[in-house]
Amino acid sequence: MELKDFFNENKSVALGFSGGVDSSYLFYAAAKYGADVKAYFVKTAFQPEFELIDAKQIAQQIGAEITVVKLDILADEKVTSNPANRCYYCKQKIFGAIQAQAIKDGCELIIDGSNASDDEDDRPGMKAIRELSVRSPLRECGLTKADVRELSKAAGLFTWDKPAYACLATRIPTGQEITKDMLTRIELSEDGLFHLGFSDFRVRVMGDIAKLQVPKDQMYHMLNKHEAVLAALKPYFATVLLDMEGR
Question: Which fold has domain 3-161?
Answer without folding.
Answer: Rossmann fold (3.40.50)
